[in-house]
## 1
Amino acid sequence: MANPGYKTLGHIIVFLSLFAIFSSNLFVNKGSSQGLGDFLDNLFDDNDNGDEIKKKIEKELKDKDKDNKQEPEKEESFDTKDYNFADEGEKERKSFNFAVAGDFGCSKNAKNTVSNMKDKKPELVIPLGDLSYSKSANCWLDLISPFSDRLKVTLGYHDVNDGASKLNQYEQTFGLKNHYDSFDYRHVHFVIMSSLSKFDKGSEQYKFISEDLKKASEDKEIDWIIVTGYSPLYTSPSKHTAEKDMRDIYHPLFEQYGVDLVLQAHNHNYQRTYPISYNSGDSSKPTISNQFTTDYSSQSNGIVFAIVGTGGEGFYPLENQAAYTATQFTRFGFLNIEISNGNPHTKLTGTFYDNKGDEVRDQFTIGKEIQVKKLVDKS
């Protein structure tokens, strides 16, 4: 009977010889959960001989080589049929509220924003772009799923430019033929702009928006016109500057057709202007129509612009405050818009709710008079 000590010594000599040959490839996979000690334990037992050890090493090398050839990560599928605005076109004249914020991401801050929104029970939620900062939309879609039947999204830079797969996911999920659109809800006309699509006066988007606003302004059933977008037309000094070219094209158009409120994001902070009018001499210095902090009239010929980039991504500093800006701050939260439908008076109330303590950080109102035809009961 062979001496077990000699047998073990022979095993070690064979192993060391083979290890010298294969060591350059053996442990290339640094992410392997199997350490050197575990590997040796698997190679040796009392009945092994040199040939068996060699076979085990060759098999181990093949397995590790296979592990190193990583398959491309597959995109999770997502059920798109549940994401839509179920009540679009609802015409009942009653008060309602909707929630807006942009620059979400999928952090705890974003989860708090969604939870804060849920507490206010909005009938409509309008995300203002830069929804997910991950390589797919899955985390954000999961986050926003409590509002899956009341969403109208605006797309931002990271939604459009982070790869075709991610953009395609948004387009399929929300049935987006174009990145700009419009819709009616309870006598409010909403226009969704695309800052990242062509917007000059010869573009399809300009043609769509100008015709759409003209039609809405002539519709006696429309009490309010609200525009949402991504890049701001006006901003206090912060990381991103205002979109001058877009401002020079669309602010005069908004005035022409009676837009009441413009909601945007991109800068990760909150800013809200006084009602302002376009200044053709220097559009960066708009005319302030009313310097009260609230209680505006839509007949004052000024439009309120708000940046709500407070959904959850890290803040951008506010370096100064523009003269036309009524209030600004860096807090996570959302802007709740309540429409009080009445006859002949109707009112829009904007309230910014801070995620911390549900504190009200800003509030403004816009009022107008309307005439609603009373229905005659012919029964």
## 2
Amino acid sequence: MKKILEIKNLSVEYFLENRNILALQNINIDLFENEIIGIIGESASGKSTLAHAIVSLLDKSAKITNGKILFENENLLSKKEKELQKIRGKKISIIFQDPFSSLNPTMKIGKQILEAIDLNPSKERVFSLLKDVGIQDEKLRYSQYPHQISGGMRQRVMIAIAIASNPKIIIADEPTTSLDTTYQLQIIDLLKNINKKYKSSIIFISHNLAMVSSVASKLYIMYKGEIIEETIANDLLEKTKHPYTKLLLNSLIEMQTQKK
């Protein structure tokens, strides 16, 4: 497989309350074509900072102090904003945590998807995208506003926007956090189908170890801004080394036992 994204020794600092806070430290990640990888960690572990760094959407208080982000062997950190605009949303897209705040409440759903299509935008293409993300009555949904549909359907709209230009990479940043269990499982299945149909590589970011390991082939465990363990998903139970990862696994096993 061909490597499509390589993050090398990436470090990010935030300047807050007159002091520097290290958010990411020497992050190294490889992503190959048509691969799904998982980034797992608790809140404030640096997961979203990593996602935003890849697409150059970091907060103004943040600064990349070291490293490279190589996309198709070109360093994104050396590119100007006009160059990044040709990549962001087109070749690398992102699905944010909260679809309601990410969608424009004053714009109809169809128009928002239409604007995300890079080549030959049309209503027919929007209808096709809505079908691909599992939304029925696509002609009705085209003319509705975000507040008129459910949270699960809004997330599907966000995924339709993310795949509208057939990107090389999709970053799914906690895409199931605001959804109930049923919708979460549906979104997981949808991401798997998108990966198969569109051949997009996916970076799935979540705090939910079980959920990520069910869809990703390779896992990166984050803790306090560092990647403390990298493992093949199938080897997670047998070859886990770091104490923090073992704690995550133990808590998962305890939850499953309690459910029984």
## 3
Amino acid sequence: MSDAALDQMRELVQVDIGKRGLATDPTRNLLTECRDDFRNACRSLAGGRAPTLAIVTGFFIPTATPPAAETDGPLGALYLARALSPLGFQVTLVTDAFCAPALRVGLGLAGLRKSCRLIVLPSPEEAGQMSVSDYAQFFLERNGNMRPTHLLAIERVGPSHTLESLQKQIGSDGALGETYLDFLHAVPSEHQDRCHTMRGRDITDLVSPAHRLFEAFADDPVITTIGIGDGGNEIGMGKIPWDVIDRNIPGGGLVACRVPTDHLIVAGLSNWGAYALAAGVRLLRNAFDQSIFDVDEERRLLEAMVEHGPLVDGVLGRPEVSVDGVEFSRYAEVLTALARMR
């Protein structure tokens, strides 16, 4: 019964509300490639004896007024903290300086300032002097030298593909073939291994390289990694073959992230993926509480984070109580629908 409920939750949030092309190809697309990952991510989190979860978020919108982090991501990260902390999860939120004020306000209003740690990542300039291991050590020291059992990225940009990462996806015995030419045409050398917005703007030098945490812990048997995204350019999307993202998302070849995670959740909005993940974990823990689906509370938190962050709508480019151009009433319908699933 739980498998059917989890699948319903996944299907509820896998609606291409932004018309980005998540399922342009009906055969192979961003929704079909990792269909079991939502269920597996829920079970991995729910099954831990002493789960510790570090959540990385904060997508910078340089063209917004003012330039700021977008509302998709931080609100979902806070929701996971609110939903899982009462279950005994030790949750740490991880972000850049430009997003920290919004999360700090959200944690305060949610009564989680004392129980949830907030880590501010090194600036791009500081990180430029660090190796991958140094960067990971920076995180661990500020996390009380505690290695999380789960490392999750929600709506967090990651670097684009290189020929090396493309070959790694195919395998040492495979040939790139026509994909090689398609890739070189879509991703010029100066755009390889760079972080992009969905519109193809290079923001590598404006954000901390948080993907290094996922690279540093990729082979750590203690840590399970999870990615939540909605466009192809987020950490975790490296689990989907580059050509699938290129074929489905307009301009997707350029922005497709090369960094994979153990489990990948693709949703119409990344925050929706967080809502479903939290609901799935609580279902499996027999702690499905209607109070976590409080739409009014979610709006109150979003309003405060927008005002004091500020956070901006990533599509509209303004401090609005909306997500990716979706007005709040439509956006919140997912919470109402999840509340009916059990």
